[in-house]
Structures are given as C-alpha cells and as structure tokens.
Amino acid sequence: MAVLELNNENFDATIQDNDIVILDFWAPWCGPCKQFAPTYDEMSEKIDGVVFAKVNTEDEQELAGHFQIRSIPTLMIFRDQIAIFSQPGAMSATDLEAVIGKAKDLDMDMVRKEIEEQQKKEA
Hints:
The chain is an alpha/beta fold.
C-alpha cells in the first residue's frame, strides 16, 4: 500500500476511517528522515491491515505542534482513534515490525478503561 501524505484536511478522516494508522512526522531537510524513508516505504508494502502515512512538519506545522513533535523523525501509532505509541527517532525494519505487531495485539478495551480511569483522577 502506498504511503499517504497527511495534512489538516485529510488527517482526521484518515485516523477515524482506519483501525491502525502509523504516522511518520518528517521534514525534507532531515537526514535521519531521509535514511528512514526507504524502510518505512518497504514496511508499508509488507504489512497488511495498517495505513502508513507521513506528515511533513515543514508544511503541516499546526499538526506537528498539536502533537508536540520536537524531534524528527517521530513515529506515532493510532489504533481505534487513540494514540497508543509515540517515539522520536528512526527504527530498523525489525523494530518497526515488532512495534506494529504489539499495536495489533493490544487489548483496546483495557486501553479505553485505563484512559477513563486516568480522566477520572484528573477531574
């Protein structure tokens, strides 16, 4: 599957319309981003059931700011519209595949319950 380019117009729909979305926050001038891009593209072709997307932090500063992206590349994974993973830095294909596997295996009922409990504590 091709890697999607996300922006303010298509971001919400992409997150809402797909079970698992992995995001690569990057910039054209970023050396590590350029080195990671082939790995990310390769994994997008290899792994089914996951939407791979990129957010150009230069063009989409509002999105980058919303997610408090301070270092690039930063990878985020959304599952059922919930951000379940965020980590700066490039990954090897093996590590990326392992993280995606864990995201697929995650008990989302438990995640929602933990979020609800945290929200009650903060209220």
